[in-house]
Amino acid sequence: MYQAQATWKRAGFFGKQYWGKGYATEAASAAIKHTFANFDVTEIVAITYRNNWTSRKVMEKLGFKHNPLRDFDHPKLPRTSKMLPHVLYSFKNGG
């Protein structure tokens, strides 16, 4: 079983002129298909801070499911950070 991490920050990955055109969704979809086809992986998880509605929308569009029982406070952020609460979405192989 493999465990890997892939991250991107929208502003760093795509210039602002490309935001809202579906490129992040397209790239993530290809990465998901590649991962399930080439590695012994049963689940992919995605996280973001709770109020990052744009990222959450992309996750949901891709078929990721939110499970509030798996949400958490990010351990590397200050307790006073607005971005402390994180949500976890998962996508299981086969749906």
TrEMBL record:
Organism, scientific name: Maritalea porphyrae
Signal peptide boundaries: none
Record-linked InterPro entries: Acyl_CoA_acyltransferase, GNAT_dom, N-acetyltransferase
Record Pfam families: Acetyltransf_3 (PF13302)
Name of the protein in its database record: N-acetyltransferase domain-containing protein
Residues covered by the N-acetyltransferase domain: 13-65
